[in-house]
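Human: I'm a chemist; would you kindly supply sequence and structure tokens for a protein?

Assistant:
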Amino acid sequence: MTKFFGNLHMVLVVGLLLAIAVMFGAHADMVTVSAVFRWLHLFFGIVWIGLLYYFNFVQIPTMPKIPAELKPAVGKHIAPSALFFFRWGAAFTVLTGLVVAHLSGYLHQALALQEPFRLIGIGMWLALIMAFNVWFVIWPAQKKALGIVAADDATKAAAATRAMIFSRTNTLLSLAMLYAMVNANHG
């Protein structure tokens, strides 16, 4: 049992098989490409926003309390791994969300903020801004701050501050984005 649960890939494969069994076992007649993409959108969104909240609620506030000799473990091992899933969670959340909107026939109206798709459109634009921040501000800054790319100490400090500010910006935007996403179809 420990061997199984100690293997994340195996747990994910069995979890995926279980999800497929539930999809087809409970509502085989309702399983559509759109439904699968909605499920993927939710999964990737949880990965993305879950890690955003981990960084902002746990890692950033805790780092000043960690003894100096232990900080390299976070910076060299935990943060790069978490940032990998964070940025790809963002990319796949946006991609699957755009696919869902396209398959559902409201992509252009939502992006143009036309009624009755204005609320989902607001959520989509907030998510696009947040994903842009992840890939083009936070990740490049974190590469410097964590020493993944060469930078002097002053550049690393400035990059860490920049990453934190944009991560907090995404946390701020996420609250409205989540409201828009959850309530767009429930007016």
